[in-house]
Specification:
single chain; about 325 residues; alpha/beta; Rossmann fold; four-stranded parallel beta sheet; 12 helices; about 20% strand; globular
Length: about 325
């Protein structure tokens, strides 16, 4: 989905205030539901979630967490509900046979690093993960879902936008009241710079929670290869502006940019129009890895891979070890 513009207004937009009673009801139910854990996995569960709907960079952070686990000698398995895909699972993702329409785009990205289980029923997915030989589960999203207990919950926030107007759905982006979500958080990861992220970081420190800073780092070899071109950038992710900012910081010349909703399935006509526009203006097309999964093979569209770099990630290791020892 694309975040409505009125969510970003502080103080809240009149339309948000109009929706506030409905948001209060939604928030009360969502907050109550968060405390009702249904089942625990035999494997330790490390959740990478966020306070809000929309993208904050969870998938790159989940990959970074899995890499840290592997350095500890663990065999991580990703667990996700496969947003945008038709599979309800539980099923182990096979990139050779599953496409984004079945598995979703994010599971196919995760599957490049470790086994992935797609399951709308998270406890059932956790049980299947145990059969893959995994020793730990990295759950991409699902923080507010009580079906499966978490041994470590890492909350991710986009430093540039924070929690926007701080209201629950549908008046704002929060999936549950902020205070209720803090009660279940073990650490905060702030992705990128910005005053909204600093406010949340200070709140986390007051609550005694560790705070980590993270950035999305583009592949330096790809950046070097792309230098000298002029680009029409497009993205269908949670916050396309984040991708455009990454291109700009990398020193690439972005002449135009186009935004699409998160997990957008591109129609042939849309891609044809982008190609025609790029050709008319003498530009090259460039997009994200996640979009590329949904586009399939397209030799004329450049892709910029990014990884999440967590500052002082050595301090994250003790938290992971504690989760691994959880009964």
């Amino acid at each position: 989905m694309r975040a409505p513009a009125f969510w970003q207004r502080v103080p809240p937009h009149p339309f948000a205030r109009l929706l506030a009673p409905l948001a209060a009801l939604y928030g009360r139910f969502a907050g109550w539901r968060m405390g009702r854990v249904v089942e625990h996995s035999a494997l330790p569960v490390i959740c990478v979630g966020n306070f809000t709907v929309g993208g904050t960079g969870k998938t790159p952070v989940a990959l970074a967490v899995a890499a840290l686990l592997e350095e500890e000698g663990e065999r991580p398995c990703f667990l996700t509900r496969g947003h945008g895909g038709s599979l309800r699972g539980p099923v182990a993702v096979d990139p050779a046979t599953h496409d984004h329409r079945e598995a979703g785009d994010e599971p196919l990205l995760l599957a490049r690093a470790a086994p992935v289980i797609v399951s709308g029923d998270r406890p059932a997915g956790a049980n299947l993960a145990g059969q893959t030989g995994a020793t730990a589960i990295v759950m991409d999203d699902g923080f507010q879902n009580p079906a499966l207990g978490k041994d470590l919950s890492l909350l991710l926030v986009d430093g540039a936008v924070g929690v926007m107007n701080g209201l629950c759905l549908p008046a704002g982006p929060l999936r549950a009241p902020l205070a209720r979500q803090w009660e279940h958080a073990d650490a905060l990861i702030v992705m990128g710079e910005g005053a909204p992220g600093e406010v949340l970081a200070e709140d986390a420190r007051k609550r005694g929670l560790p705070v980590f800073e993270a950035t999305l780092v583009p592949d330096p070899q790809v950046v070097e290869r792309l230098r000298g071109g002029r680009y029409l950038a497009f993205a269908g992710i949670g916050r396309p502006a984040k991708f455009f900012e990454t291109l700009d910081r990398a020193g690439l010349d972005v002449a135009e940019s186009r935004s699409f909703p998160d997990h957008h399935v591109y129609r042939e006509q849309e891609i044809a129009e982008l190609r025609a526009r790029a050709q008319r203006e003498g530009l090259r097309l460039i997009t994200t890895e996640k979009d590329a999964v949904r586009l399939g093979a397209a030799e004329d569209i450049e892709v910029l891979p990014v990884t999440a770099r967590i500052a002082e990630n050595a301090a994250l290791v003790p938290l992971l070890r504690r989760a691994l020892r959880a009964p």
